[in-house]
Amino acid sequence: MEITEIPFARTIGLKKSDSEVLELPFVDSLHNHLQTIAASAQYSLAELAAGDYMQQLFPELVGKVLPVLRDSHFKFKSPAQSRISAFPEVSQKAVTKFMQHFEKKGRALIVVDVSVKDEEGKVTSSGCFKWYVQSL
Length: 136
What we know:
Oligomer: single chain
Helix content: 25-40%
Largest sheet: 6 strands, antiparallel
Structural class: alpha+beta
CATH architecture: Roll
């Protein structure tokens, strides 16, 4: 499923840029009491980006597995005062370990790190998302 078509993603206004980067607009509906993008919106962007990135990393598993977020750690670093974008990454070592374990057991864990940045490239928040992935 295209990540931007998930009902919650549509509700918060998630978009994918021409360069395939997930982003949220700077709009009143996402603002907190300080007129910056709310913490929960930043977290949601990062979590959705982590899930989308796993589909990019493992296209052969799409539709054949059930990924579930098991754990996350998230830190807020700077107020988000403009459109924000998410930048997920996973080390090649983690990808290899995941695939080895998945092929052996039919399930595995993988951690996706995500940085959320504003239009100027300043990191507003970051976190790691541990996913449990199981064969259907």
